[in-house]
Amino acid sequence: MQLVLLFLFVFLLSFNSEPILAKDKNSLSIGFGSCLHQEKESPILATIQSQKFDYLILMGDIVYADSLTAKDKIPAYEKQFKRKEWKSILKDTLLLFTWDDHDYGINDSGAEYSEKIESRNIFLSYVQPRMPKNIVFGSNNKEGVFYSYWVTFHGKKIHIVIPDTRYFRSPLQKTFLSYFTGKSHYKPSSESSFSILGNEQWLWLEEEFAKPSDLLIFVSSIQVIPTEQPFEKWNNLPHEREKLIQSLYNANTKDLVILSGDRHIAEIHEYKSPNKKTLIEVTSSSLNLPLPLLPLEYDSEWKLGNAYNLENFGTLLISWKDGTLQWKSTIRDKNGDIVLEYDPLKNLSLK
Predict the structure, then answer these.
(1) Beta strands per DSSP E along the chain
(2) Dihedral in degrees, nearest 10, Cα atoms 227, 215, 304, 162
């Protein structure tokens, strides 16, 4: 009889499509990070595994495999996912992925990448089996890798929205000096017809933002708020950044936070506007490819504190307290120690 009951229990579990929630009934933990080179040692993965996150969001550059031929990326994916840490992480954690330039195409590439269809197929063939089932990627024509994911926590709705900032993106405008220095520095483009998301993806995003939620987590592979740094960012197409900010203001949600990667530094920005929601962006990069000797940190009127330029990952802890959702975010080093922290109730503190 006990064996029959056990079989019935396992059978019913197999049909449970609800997302896995936090182990602690009053908290849900989400890790996030970007830029994980397959050829570099990655002790930070063991640290991440020890955190036993409910979810882990990989925000792009899961491999560094720049190539004009998409199939040349396959060995990099093979090497990346042979790391033993992935198997351990997957025992406790659900993974969500998106891509950025180095796993998508070549450095800073966009819609012009000629093998983006092949690259999409290869990317999804490696990440989709490691993600929750029933996620629909991209458009009806199977273009792009944008998607959203819902988590129900204490009856509250957490909406994770992950656009694709590569597949449809228009060309960027280089600075004059970059043609002589060879650096990938860009200036804001005045071409109003250019886009980061493309028309179809914008329609999808507006539809997602119109859905009611208690917490919206917007994940962008590139930074949203900063305008001063000369690298990739939403402000390289200022009209697109402004459109996104207004869309975030108008989103049908009670609270929101922006997560981003790409920059090989970690930093926190707080964008305040009168009578509008305060926008918080937490950037985490990189997991194992720090560039501490390069001048990557730029002053910004919205930046809180200093950047952290060694290996790091981010955490988003969502708590159920007094009948409401509360969240705070940290940036942690490769040993798991807090180096930056943002708590909406306390603002920023630096450790």
Answers:
(1) 27-33, 55-58, 94-97, 147-153, 156-162, 173-174, 186-187, 215-220, 256-260, 266-271, 279-283, 303-308, 312-321, 324-333, 338-343, 347-350
(2) -40
Q: Does the pLDDT at position 328 exceed 50?
A: yes
- The single residue listed with the structure tokens 């955190």 is 51
pLDDT single digits (tens) 72-118:
999 999 999 999 999 999 999 999 999 999 999 999 999 999 999 99
Domain boundaries, the chain: 20-350
Q: How far apart are CA 101 and CA 283, in angstroms?
A: 17
Strands 27-33 and 312-321 come out as antiparallel
The tokens of 6 are what? 């056990």
Assess whether pLDDT exceeds 80 at residue 181: no
- Sequence letter at residue 79: K
Q: Mean pLDDT throughout 125-143?
A: 97
pLDDT tens-digit readout, 197-222 = 999 999 999 999 999 999 999 999 99
pLDDT greater than 70 at residue 15: no
Q: What pLDDT score does 337 carry?
A: 98
In which order are the strands placed within the sheet that holds 156-162?
147-153, 156-162, 215-220, 256-260, 279-283, 266-271, 303-308
Pairing of β 338-343 and β 347-350? antiparallel
Query: Could you tell me which residues come within 8 angstroms of residue 228 by beta carbon, excluding any fewer than 6 positions away?
Result: 298, 299, 300
Say how far apart CA 43 and CA 287 lie, in whole Å.
9
Residue 205 to residue 208: CA distance in whole angstroms: 5
Is there a contact between 334 and 44 (Cβ–Cβ < 8 Å)? yes
Question: What CA–CA distance (Å, rounded) separates 64 from 58?
Answer: 14
**CA 258/CA 279 separation, integer angstroms:** 7
Determine whether domain 20-350 maps to CATH 3.30.70.420: no
Residues 247 and 218: their CA atoms lie apart, in Å, by: 11
pTM above threshold 0.90: yes
Quote the DSSP letter at residue 87.
H
Find residue 315's DSSP bridge partners.
Answer: 31, 330
